[in-house]
Amino acid sequence: MPKGKRKERRIYKERKSQQVSDDETETLDTVSAISSISDQQATITDGSTDVEAEETSVQENLEEKLQSCIEGISQKSAKGRIESLHSLRAILSQKYLIEIVSQNKMTITDCLERSLKKGSGEEKSTAALCSILILIQLGASEEREEVFKSLYPILKVVLSDTSIPLTARASCAEALGLCTFIAAEETKDFEDVITFLENIFKLAFAKSPQNCSADFYMLMNCAVGAWTLLMSVASDSFCWSSRETHLCKLYDLLSTADMELRITAGEAIALIYEIARANDDNFKGQKFDDLCMSLKALSTESNKFRAKKDRRLQKSSFREILSFVETGNFVVDSRQIKVNAFDTIVVETWSLQIQYNALCHVLGTGMSIHLQENHLLRDIFDLGPPVALDSIPSSKCSKQERHMIHDAAFKARTKSRKRLRDIKAVVTAGE
């Protein structure tokens, strides 16, 4: 046989044996990858018990911290009480802990009363915000009214005392509005607090803009915001009887120097029109043309001395307010808030928008947790009873599962590419 043919036959046999070996290696790699994924999934399944145990441990630690905060707010050191109040506020806003709060409600209430009466400005301010959170925690139970009756008169006294720092009075205004919104049962209570808050923000008309501090505007903003929140649930007859008076006062607030107060006043005007047009579709009110011109000017204002973020926020807010006042159409982005796989809040009115924003302001990032577990918030937004987490379908793999699957796929892909490179090298060498 010629030498050239013997050499070609030898190269052919080497290639064939290499392909057989590669097929066996590929099969083994595939089995290895599948086995690895199966083992990893089994590890995840076995680890579910460990995750549940870890969650139980976290809950127990949280309850211990809460108990420590409750003990801390009764200590003699003012600095220690303030730190404990800040910690208490952080825990109550992030988690729904109805059982331990209910067991210690009297102790917490007594400490908050003492802080509101005798504490410094910061202590009063933090205690007022904690008062809101205690009532949110107790909101669905019958105990909330008892706590509310204890805190209600103290909040009014602190808010009306001009010798107390403005920041503390601002927190008390917010607390008075939200506590009344959550716990008051009688219509008279709502109307009394509405009138009381209205007398507070009347101060904004008595002072010239040059003499107003940032803290003063904060107090006015909180008072108007709390007043607006209560107006969203007040009786139609009460709102209708005083609509013109309220519109004139709020119209004057649109020219204040503070952006947040202007926006809050604008939202209050939108709410008044929403309530009034429920009784009269063609309601316009006095100075309607002047009001629309002012709203339009605020929605297009571009003064360079204001911060760019503030200009953008003001324009966006007043465009929505102007559109509603002129046309009656609620156009706040058709806001949909997804709570879980089953529940979604659709915000279609200014009343619901104001209530959601007020609760968001005090709960912060804990709003989503409370919407899932807190009976009070679920009643406010018509979500029904809480849904058990076990019944919520999980449509996605956990982060750990995705990580393991990606690792196994990366390993198999790397081996496959290496094998192809080896085959290519052999063929190139044979040629």
Average pLDDT reading: 81
Distance between the termini: 21 Å
Please give the number of β-strands.
Answer: 2
Determine the fraction of residues in helical runs and give it as a percent range: over 70%
Structural class: mainly alpha
Largest sheet: 2 strands, antiparallel
Radius of gyration: 32 Å
Detail the poorly predicted runs: 19-38, 40-47
Give the strand line-up of the largest sheet.
Answer: 1-2
Number of alpha- plus pi-helical segments:
19
Note the overall shape. globular
- Could you give the order of the helices and strands? HHHHHHHHHHHHHHHEEHHHH
Strand content: under 5%
Q: What can you tell me about this protein's structure?
A:
- It is built from 19 helices and 2 strands.
- A two-stranded antiparallel sheet has the order 1-2.
- By secondary structure, it is mainly α.
Task: Summarize it.
Helix content is 76%, strand content 1%. By secondary structure, it is mainly α.
List keywords for this structure.
431 residues, mainly alpha, single chain, globular, two-stranded antiparallel ribbon
Q: Would you spell out the secondary-structure blueprint of this structure?
A:
Blueprint (H helix, E strand, L loop, with lengths): L2 H70 L5 H17 L3 H6 L1 H14 L2 H18 L5 H17 L5 H18 L3 H15 L1 H4 L7 H18 L4 H6 L1 H11 L5 H21 L8 H12 L8 H20 L8 E3 L5 E3 L3 H14 L3 H7 L1 H6 L18 H32 L1
Helix pairs in contact: 1-2, 1-19, 2-5, 4-5, 4-6, 5-6, 5-7, 6-7, 7-8, 7-10, 8-10, 10-13, 10-16, 12-13, 13-15, 14-15
